[in-house]
């Protein structure tokens, strides 16, 4: 098996493990903790474990993987330990607190591996610019396939019975166990990956650099400060989508096909990823970012105002390509171009800390109590129909407010924010 194929398989398994259980987990939590008064808060707390772990993950990667052990070995050990945690979670049915802490243990194992697989790839390809996007694409494919397997349907269009005798798998512990088994296999497979020894043994240890804090100096640029603040703020409503969309569309329209239907979001992501250079050249950074933010507001408005319209729910899911690619991918490109070469890695780490770390953490700590405050009953279609407007229009308003703030205050006229120059810069580095 060639090195490239081995890395493709690594990426596929990496995101299959995450996608298989993470998307439908809300539905399962409702089944096992249905009698709890603060059910929505429990759901929000469990999903916050991923964001807490995202904040601490860089320390593990930045110190252990860069200085002590081969990256493929660390990845293998963490995947096997994570698989054990997921299996343990699948056995917990009467203690939200225990489920929370075991899930926290899983994500403390898993989140560092997201950076590890990138580092392993970077260390074993001839051209990062040319080879990495092709390999990373297999991660998105892995997430899509996991949704099709759990839903046993081809995007909800027709059945694919890959789990004989199992119905509505998303509402059971099967996704957790599926991820655990695949995670164990993946962990063992990691020991066969290309050798990726530490590359920073001689460098001084700096927690600030690991967390990207040495890139804080970018905030001296008023435009980048606005971008950073808005990136943090837009990820607060983002958390609502990842944690609550599955059980919403499950109850309102798609039932056991929901994981397959939601995989359309990743298909859209692949499609719009290919269009980013085209739109970036014509719109520039400001309008790309703004369109991405407004897409979040539109998605939640569709969910809140037309919860019983399955076509509008699908449209909201398919908007994921614009929501993610136009904002996050464009933001990463903008960060890479605005940052001096010596702190580009730190700048990306800081951006990740602000978005998938702090921003989504706040969002996960908000959507649960918000659901309980409005007395949302997420266990029935009637409950969701009655509470959809109040629940979803709140993040829609947040996203719209951030969009207005960004439009009014972001005025970067540098070449990094201009579409034609940005694309030209990309082509020269490739």
Observed structural traits:
430 residues, mainly alpha, disordered C terminus
Would you give an account of this structure?
Its main location: membrane. Helix 3 (39-67) packs antiparallel against helix 14 and helix 6 (128-151) crosses helix 11. This protein is mostly helical and 430 residues long. 76% of the residues lie in helices and 0% in strands.
Summarize the SSE layout with pairings.
Layout: H1 3-22, H2 25-32, H3 39-67, H4 71-89, H5 96-123, H6 128-151, H7 174-190, H8 207-210, H9 222-254, H10 258-262, H11 264-305, H12 310-318, H13 320-338, H14 344-373, H15 381-409, H16 419-429
Subcellular location: Cell membrane
Main location: membrane
Membrane topology: Multi-pass membrane protein
Task: Quickly describe the structure.
With 430 residues, this protein is an all-alpha fold. Helix content is 76%, strand content 0%. Keywords: Cell membrane, Membrane, Transmembrane, Transmembrane helix, Transport.
Amino-to-carboxy terminus distance: 27 Å
Structural class: mainly alpha
Strand content: under 5%
Largest sheet, strands/sense/barrel? none
Give the number of helices. Answer: 16
Order of helices and strands: HHHHHHHHHHHHHHHH
**Poorly predicted spans:** 421-430
The radius of gyration over CA amounts to 21 Å
How many E-type strands? Answer: 0
Question: In percent, how helical is the residue content?
Answer: over 70%
């Amino acid at each position: 098996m060639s090195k490239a194929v081995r890395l493709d398989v690594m990426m596929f398994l990496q995101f299959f493990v995450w996608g298989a259980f993470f998307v439908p987990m809300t539905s399962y939590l409702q089944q096992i903790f249905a009698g709890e008064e603060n059910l929505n808060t429990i759901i929000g707390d469990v999903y916050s474990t991923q964001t807490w772990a995202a904040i601490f993950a860089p320390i593990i990667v930045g110190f252990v993987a860069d200085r002590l052990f081969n990256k493929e070995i660390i990845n293998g050990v963490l995947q096997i330990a994570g698989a054990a945690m997921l299996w343990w979670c699948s056995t917990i049915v009467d203690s939200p607190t225990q489920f929370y802490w075991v899930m926290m243990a899983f994500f403390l194992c898993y989140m560092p591996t997201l950076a590890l697989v990138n580092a392993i790839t970077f260390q074993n390809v001839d051209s990062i610019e040319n080879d990495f996007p092709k390999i990373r694409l297999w991660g998105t494919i892995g997430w899509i396939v996991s949704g099709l397997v759990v839903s046993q349907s081809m995007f909800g269009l027709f059945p694919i019975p890959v789990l004989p005798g199992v119905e509505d798998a998303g509402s059971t512990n099967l996704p957790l166990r599926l991820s655990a088994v695949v995670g164990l296999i993946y962990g063992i497979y990691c020991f066969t990956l290309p050798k990726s020894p530490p590359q920073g043994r001689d460098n001084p240890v700096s927690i600030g650099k690991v967390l990207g804090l040495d890139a804080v100096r970018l905030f001296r640029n008023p435009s980048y400060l606005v971008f950073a603040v808005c990136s943090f703020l837009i990820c607060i409503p983002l958390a609502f989508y990842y944690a609550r969309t599955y059980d919403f569309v499950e109850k309102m329209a798609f039932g056991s096909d929901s994981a397959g239907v939601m995989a359309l979001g990743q298909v859209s992501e692949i499609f719009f990823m290919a269009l980013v250079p085209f739109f970036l050249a014509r719109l520039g950074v400001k309008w790309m970012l703004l369109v991405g933010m407004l897409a979040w507001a539109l998605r939640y408005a569709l969910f809140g105002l037309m919860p019983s319209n399955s076509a509008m729910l699908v449209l909201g899911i398919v908007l994921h390509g614009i929501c993610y690619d136009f904002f996050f991918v464009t933001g990463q490109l903008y960060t890479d171009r605005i940052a001096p070469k010596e702190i580009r890695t730190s700048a990306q780490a800081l951006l990740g800390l602000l978005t998938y770390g702090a921003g989504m953490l706040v969002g996960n700590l908000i959507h649960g109590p918000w659901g309980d405050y409005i007395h949302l009953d997420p266990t029935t279609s009637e409950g969701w129909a009655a509470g959809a407007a109040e629940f979803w229009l709140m993040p829609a308003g947040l996203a719209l407010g951030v969009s207005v703030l960004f439009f009014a205050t972001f005025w970067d006229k540098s070449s990094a924010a201009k579409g034609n120059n940005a694309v030209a810069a990309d082509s020269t580095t490739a």
